[in-house]
Amino acid sequence: MTVTLGFDVEEFDFPLERGRKIDFDTQLAVSTEGLEFLLQLLARLGLRATFYTTANFALHRPELIRRIVTGGHEVASHDYYHGLTAGADPAGSKQALEKLTGQTVTGYRAPRLAAVSAATLAAAGYKYDSSINPTWIPTRYNNLRAPRSVSHRDRLAIYPVSVSAPFRVPLFWISLHVMPLPLYKQLCRSALHRDGHLNLYFHPWEFSGRLKDPAFGVPGYLSHCSGPALQDKFTRLLEWLKSRGCRFTTTREYLGYDE
What we know:
Blueprint: E1 2-9, H1 14-17, H2 24-45, E2 50-53, H3 55-60, H4 62-70, E3 74-77, H5 90-101, E4 107-108, H6 118-124, E5 128-129, E6 136-137, E7 141-142, E8 151-153, E9 156-158, H7 173-178, H8 181-195, E10 197-202, H9 220-223, H10 227-243, E11 247-248, H11 251-254
Parallel strand pairs: 1-2, 1-10, 1-11, 2-3, 4-5, 5-9
Antiparallel strand pairs: 6-7, 8-9
Helix pairs in contact: 2-10
């Protein structure tokens, strides 16, 4: 059984989406705090992961990106910017990340799991896309008919994030915030039994201790389990998966695109 952990490393623009003001330095600081925790946790547990990183964040925090690489993790693309008004630039993001890391960037995940052209990504040189959540999220997307396992389109591997079985309950980041850990574990167990793997994703900023700041406007269903509370919950989840004999690897390696 294989687990591919994915972290969407981006400028913390969540408050901007809700009409709140937040300066760019604070956006970077909140995400940096969570990323520091994750790198330390993964090192302590001896686990590898994939960090889908915006070029904008990477260029402002190059030392952290280099730590990701030296830690044995994968750097993939989360496009150039994360903002709602930013246009997509997967090719520019790939070039910037490769110049910074000195490694080939093979994977992509669109901000907010937005629809993206497989042909465009393949033309830019990507090998896989992990932007599909094969479930239904009201007002966001309906992917109930999408494959839940790896498929291919325009020379690109499509690697969806995990959902439970037989019903496609999402196992994405919000679920870990709102569900009791025993329930989340049970749903993960069902996905492992059905698919033989787990593809889970989170954001570093979730693990910051600053999400309860009223100025950010983070809703209570997220902020009530954030910072240290989420850090503890997430640590227990990883320790449980590890105790079950799960193998943690990068997405690139799992899909057979390792250099």
